[in-house]
Amino acid sequence: MLRQASVLLALLTSFFLGFGLLPAHAKPHEHGTAQLEVSLSGQSLSIRFASPLDSFLGWERVPRNEQELNLYRQLRKDLTQTSTILSLPSQALCSLQQSQVSDPHQLENDKTQGSAHQGSEHQDLVVEWFFRCEQPSQLKRASFQGFDRYKRLRRVDVLFNMPAGVGKARLTNRQRELQLP
User: Fold this and answer.
1) Judging by DSSP bridges, how do beta strands 177-179 and 141-144 pair with one another?
2) Average pLDDT, the chain
C-alpha cells in the first residue's frame, strides 16, 4: 500500500507540474512555510506535509544538547498523528493506517547524538499519513490547527487531488479551513 501511495504521489506531482499548478522552480526551503498535499483515490487518502524544521523547533541544525534532542524526538513522535496539524470531518470515517515522519538528522538510527550527519543546515521535516476512509464522499473540508501549536509557521501551500477535481489553496492563521471539491 505504501508503494502504491508513493507512486500516486509521484504521478500527482508530475500532473501538477505538467499543468503549471506548481512553479517549475518552487522555493524548496522557506522558513515559516509548509507544503500540504492531499490525494484521495477510492477509499485511500494520503496526506503529505513538509516544512523546514525551523517552523517547528526554531532551529534546523543538529540538536546540541539532551533537551534539544528530546524536543526533536517529541516533535517526530507528535507528528505521527495528524491531529497535531490537521483534522478531517468525522463523517468521512477515516482511520489512520500508517504514518511516516522523516528523520532529517538521522538521529534515530545512530547510537549517539555526536554521530548525527552534519549535512546541510537547512533541514526539512516530511510527514506522510495514509488513511482508509469509509465515507470518502464526506471529505469536503479539513481544518488546519498547526498555526496554534507551531507559532513560526505562517503559511501552508496546499495541492489537492480529489475525485471531484484538482487544485491548490493557501492556508494562513486567518484562513485555516481547507475546502475540498
Assistant:
1) antiparallel
2) 83
